[in-house]
Every structure is written in C-alpha cells, then in structure tokens.
Design goal:
7 helices, mainly alpha, about 0% strand, elongated, about 80% helix
Length: about 170
C-alpha cells in the first residue's frame, strides 16, 4: 500500500494523533476517577499522581498537535481553490453542500476548544497533584474539563471522518 504525501499527513492527523489522544483520555479519566485517598496508599498515591500528570499532559500536547496539523497542514488542502478540492466537490452538489456549510465550518472552530480544555485539565493536575485525591470538588472539576475536551474532539473527529468519506483530500 502506498500513501501519498497528503494521505500520510491525514493519517498522522486523524489516526495517529487521534488514537494517542483517545488512549491518554481513557487512562487519564480512569486515573482521575479512582484518585481517592481511601483507595490508595501514600506510595500508591505518589505513583498514581505521577502517571496522571504524564497522561493529562500527553493528552493536552496531542490535542494541540492534532488541531495544529489539521488547521495548517490538512485543512488548506481541503479548501484549495481548485475544482477538484474537497470543498469544491462538497459545494458542487446541494446533497453534499451541508457537509461544508455546517460540518466543516463547525468542525474547524469547535476543534480548538479541545486543546484548551485539555490544557486546563493538565495544568490543574500538574499544579494540584496529590491534592486532587483529597479534594473531590477539584478532582471533579478536572474530570469535567477532561470530558469536555474529549467530547469536543470527538465531535470534530467524527465530522472530519464523515467529511473525508464524502470528499477525500487528494
């Protein structure tokens, strides 16, 4: 199988960075949810907090890399001013114009919310560390930022996959 340059970047953007984001989210969420003083020893708490800090930071970095590669590498190919660009193909038919008019327009903006929320969750995790185990309100706040990042990234990723299925970037 041979991938073109553009297909390779689309793969990096969607599958490699997206998969890393999902793995960091699932590990981070499980770690944050179970981070309670009554569930772990003092030594276990130190190890778990270290792992959660790494996981949330990886998730935030991956979210930024995904949005940056999408916005400045993949998206310019989508909106190229040529009759065979993905945007032109979608807009050429009334049956697919909404994929651009709603889907892509919404996706390119909502995607930027994910790294902002993920960075907030990572910053709170790194700053408060073990205090998250003792402070349920703070832990839940970080979890909600984490979930918000996942939901917005998931919405953007789903729209991106469906748009790419309708009009692939060549």
């Amino acid at each position: 199988m041979h991938l073109s340059y553009r297909e390779w970047w689309t793969l990096v953007h969607g599958m490699i960075l997206g998969t890393t984001f999902l793995l960091a989210f699932s590990g981070g969420l499980a770690g944050l949810y179970s981070l309670r003083t009554e569930l772990v020893t003092a030594e276990g708490l130190q190890e778990r907090v270290r792992r959660i800090k790494v996981g949330t930071t990886v998730m935030a970095i991956t979210a930024w890399l995904t949005v940056i590669t999408g916005s400045w590498i993949v998206y310019p190919w989508y909106r190229a001013k040529s009759p065979d660009s993905a945007k032109s193909i979608l807009l050429a038919s009334p049956n697919t114009a909404d994929w651009h008019n709603f889907g892509m327009e919404w996706k390119e903006h909502v995607a930027w919310i994910a790294p902002i929320l993920a960075t907030t969750a990572a910053a709170l995790t790194v700053y408060y560390g073990a205090a998250l185990a003792r402070n349920r309100y703070l832990r839940n706040l970080v979890i909600w930022f984490f979930i918000g990042a996942f939901v917005t990234a998931g919405a953007a990723g789903l729209l991106g996959a469906l748009i790419t299925k309708s009009a692939p970037v060549h």
